[in-house]
Amino acid sequence: MNLYEQQPYWLIKNGIIASYPSLQKDLKLDVAIIGAGISAALTAWQLRNSGLSIAVFDKRHVGMGSTAASTAFLQYEIDTPLTSLKHLVGEANAVTSYQLCRKAIYDIADLCKSLKSAFDFSLRPSLQYASFKTHTNSLNQEYNFRKKHGFEVHWLEADEIEQKFGFKASGAIFSADGGEVDAYLLTHALLTNFGKAGHKIYSNTDIKTIEHHKQGITLQTANGSVIKAKKLIIACGYESLKYIPKKIAEINSTYALVSEPLPDVRFWYKNSLIWETAVPYMYFRAVGENRILIGGRDDLFHHPHIPPSVIKRKADMLQQAFLKKMPHIPLKADFSWAGAFAITKDGLPYIGCIPERPNTYFALGFGGNGITFSVIAAEIIHDLILESKNEHVQLFSFNR
């Protein structure tokens, strides 16, 4: 499965940070983790000091799946508005999921400080604007509902939006809590720290078969190596779906571009994350080197791959839409790519176990909040494996 096509900015910018060998022998472990992207790295890092023997396996190099193509918007708002989510999972659960995503942003901030390295991390406010006048009332209801539940939000009228952000919209929610990060760099840093704790990372190691037993799991690699583990964590993003017997998500293709460096350092008010109410929505933010990232224009997943002509057309559409909104910014695309994007029935991730795969835990951070969902998944799976109580297990379970 191609998780991205063409030139993700983070991969070109950072290159191969660290290389790991493929597995060439049999192993016995307490915990095996399939995947070496941001979800797996966060989960591995959470378990690094647990006293368990753990190893990470990926058929690619570290971070070169969906993580390399992530646009790394850190938002507590999920793709399903809070006013809609309350009807799907109940008001208390809906609010809790938003609160957990907000907490995850600040957990990432603390994590970046503790790792003492540069990950292009910043806390940023976000702005969600009404794409059409007909969306204004529902967006205002969303604002009031969030404010009622203690989120730090402000309602902006059309004149305030134009004054602060330089474009026209009939109304918008300005949220204080948001952030951005280079997920590819962070993934490498987490796994480096995990390795220093005495654990192993294996690249170019494709798991071909998984057998479940009463006492654990046996994995076999493409080259015939056998891994025996007591527990298995599957955190290989959208490719995890092949291990689940029922359909839990729709996969779309999404598109992004990063501009050439621009003369300005601050492009709009506080360089906020900006997105809209239309579905699918366009979003944009500032990135390092005085560049702007734009994403969106989702469509059905292209299999087996997306032709370069489609990516160029989508990138042109994103650029034109941005310039229509921000004609005063002389933006020109420098990098463009496409990535896989999964949508669940309620916009929430799936975390935990299914009866068909005993001793196995899934960290599936599907949706537009993949990184914040992965923080939540890492904490929940840590507690499940160590048999500690976690009050949020049911909220993200497969049988919710």
Describe this structure in a few short sentences.
With 400 residues, the chain is an alpha+beta fold. Helices cover 30% and strands 28% of the residues.
Structure, explained:
By secondary structure, this protein is α+β, with helices and mostly antiparallel strands. The chain is about 30% helix and about 30% strand. It has helices spanning about 10-15, 40-45, 65-70, 80-90, 90-115, 135-150, 160-165, 185-195, 310-325, 370-385, and strands spanning about 5, 25-35, 55, 75, 120-125, 125-130, 155, 170-175, 180, 200, 205-215, 215-220, 225-235, 250-260, 275, 285, 290-300, 335-345, 350, 360-365. The protein has a nine-stranded mixed β-sheet, sandwiched between helices. Strands 2, 3, 10, 11, 12, 13, 19 and 20 form an eight-stranded mixed β-sheet that branches. A hairpin with a 6-residue loop joins strand 15 (about 275) and strand 16 (about 285). Helix 4 packs across helix 5. The protein starts with a strand and ends in a 15-residue tail after the last helix. The mean pLDDT is about 95. InterPro entries: FAD-dep_OxRdtase, FAD/NAD-bd_sf. Pfam families: DAO. This is FAD-binding oxidoreductase.
Observed structural traits:
400 residues; alpha+beta; 8-stranded mixed beta sheet; 10 helices; FAD-dep_OxRdtase; FAD/NAD-bd_sf; FAD-binding oxidoreductase
Total of helices: 10
Shape: globular
Proportion of residues in β-strands = 25-35%
Distance between the termini: 28 Å
